[in-house]
Amino acid sequence: xxxxxxxxxxxxGLAAVLGLLVGSFLNVVIHxxxxxxxxxxxxxxxxxxxxxxxxxxxxxxxxxxxxAAQAPALNLVTPRSRCPACGAGxxxxxxxxxxxxxxxxxxxxxxxxxxxxxYPLVELLTGLGFAYVMHLHGPGWPVLAWxxxxxxxxxxxxxxxxxTLLPDDITLPLLWAGLLAAALGWSGLALEVSLWGAVVxxxxxxxxxxxxxxxTGKEGMGYGDFKLFAALGAxxxxxxxxxxxxxxxxxxxxxxxxxxxxxxxxxxxxxxxGPFLAFGALLALVxxxxxxxxxxxx
Length: 298
Ligand SMILES: [Zn+2]
Prior knowledge:
Bound molecules: zinc ion
Radius of gyration: 21 Å
Shape: globular
């Protein structure tokens, strides 16, 4: 087998490097996908309610959808990455994961504005995640599937933290991929366990949402949380969902209180739940669900 050479430290090292590169791309996804979705929604709104939206933008002479189409193209590939402070393009040699951040000492090479610690953090987490799943599975299809899982879960966690959105564009493919990975024997779950994981994941949070809403009149989470939890069930099996939910609730409560007392809460006092579900899922992946159950005394 030519892949045998990738078993052991070499494979794990290469997986880590691949993870750093993918993490660098995830930074782009985390920043741009919410903006792309917002533009798409604005364009759809304008098409559906032409009477209630201004038919022309001031001075442009264009209908709103046309104006949206004329806005500078933004997708996951174009334009090239720029410094958010000074707008200078980022050269490839200043865009090397982790290394560039360290060499530039966390500052833009053009204007010296500080670069968020977030960027190397996302790269590092992805690199560690990829190395870990390579350590678990060795080279082959399963490791590629789990790399996809790690990347999607990390992207969702950070997007939800920033915007309180869990885009369907990631949660739904992640759910289908989990069922497919089980069917193909790549995730190591029986298809039945994966399927029930998806069902239990969705229905459990849906029930909690409605019970909470009927009792308090408030919305404790959003539909994106149900879809994410269903996807986690499809990948990790229904047995993993209880420890993930308990851990996520506990962490969410602690972080929420800490933010309340440090007055770091955003408008409306809303703490997104997705990042904690994601964190619980990655812990379940690393430690196994049984260890998490042990922590919460079950
Ligand atoms: Zn700059």
